[in-house]
Amino acid sequence: MKEEHFFYINNILHYKISNNESLSFDFLKGRLFNRLKKIEHESLIKKAIGKNKVKLKIFDATAGSLIDSIIFLKLGHRVVACEHSKILYRLLDDAILRAKKEYDFFENLTFVNLDSAKIIDNHKDSDIFYFDPMFKDIKQNVKRSGTLQKIGNILDLEKLEDTSIQIFDQLLKNKYKKIIVKRPIKSNPLNEKINYQVKGRAIRYDIYVKT
Ligand SMILES: C[S@@+](CC[C@H](N)C(=O)[O-])C[C@H]1O[C@@H](n2cnc3c(N)ncnc32)[C@H](O)[C@@H]1O
Q1: Inter-residue contact 116 to 60 (CB < 8 Å)
Q2: Which atom of ligand 1 is the closest one to the Cα of 71?
C-alpha cells in the first residue's frame, strides 16, 4: 500500500491502482447507491437468508465492497464484516463515514480489517456465516462487475490471496447454524454436505445447515 496513492476527489477517498485505474466507494450516489435503492429486487439473497422476523447476527467473511453486507443491514440484521485488504478497508471506511449521516443501519455494522480466520471463532454464535470468494475465472469476475476486477487488482498489489474457501472448509467441521456461499451458477458446490441452493441467472447461493 502506497500512502501517496490515496487521494480525494469531491471529498471521496480514492486509491490509484495504476496510471489509468483508481477505486473509490460511494453509497450515496452511483452504481452502489442504485443497487441499494432497489433492495426489494434482491429476492435471491432474501430467499437464501430465509424468512425471519427476528434480527439475525450475520458474519460476512468476505466483505469486499460491502454490498452484500449492506443488503443484510437493510433487511434489518446485524453484521460483522471482515476484510483483510488494508486499501479496501480505508476506502470503505471513508464511504461508511459519509453514508452514516444518511443511513441509520450502519449502527448495526461492525467492520473489521483482519483475516477472517483470526476472528471467526469469536463469532461462533452467528446465525449465518456468509462467504463470497473471488471467482478464479477472470471472465466470471468481469461478468459480475468492474469493481470486482479492481478489487482483484488491489489484492494483487497487496499480495493477498483469497483464503475464504479454506476458512469455509474449517468452519464446516465445527459448529454453525447456517452457511451461505455465493457461487457462479455453473460451478460445483464447494462441499458435498450442501443442503440446498437458491439459483439466479449468473450466480447462486449454496446453503449448508446444521441442526
Ligand atoms: C468477491 S469479494 C466479496 C464481494 C462482496 N460480497 C460484496 O458484496 O462486494 C471477496 C472479498 O473477500 C476478501 N477476502 C478473501 N479472503 C479473506 C479473508 N481470509 N479474510 C478477510 N477477507 C477476505 C477479499 O479481499 C475480497 O475483498
Answers
A1: no
A2: 8
pTM across the whole model: 0.93
Domains of the chain with CATH codes: 3-209 (3.40.50.150)
Per-residue pLDDT tens digits for 92-117: 999 999 999 889 999 999 999 999 99
Distance of CA 202 to the CA centre of its chain: 17
Query: Which stretches of the chain drop beneath a pLDDT of 70?
Result: 32-33, 35, 37, 39-41, 137-145, 211
Distance of CA 86 to the CA centre of its chain: 15
66-70: list long-range contacts, CB under 8 Å, 24+ apart: 66/25, 66/92, 66/95, 66/96, 66/111, 67/32, 67/35, 67/36, 68/130, 68/132, 68/182, 69/109, 69/111, 70/27, 70/36, 70/105
Ligand 1 center from residue 19 Cα (angstroms): 24
CA 36 to ligand 1 center in whole angstroms? 19
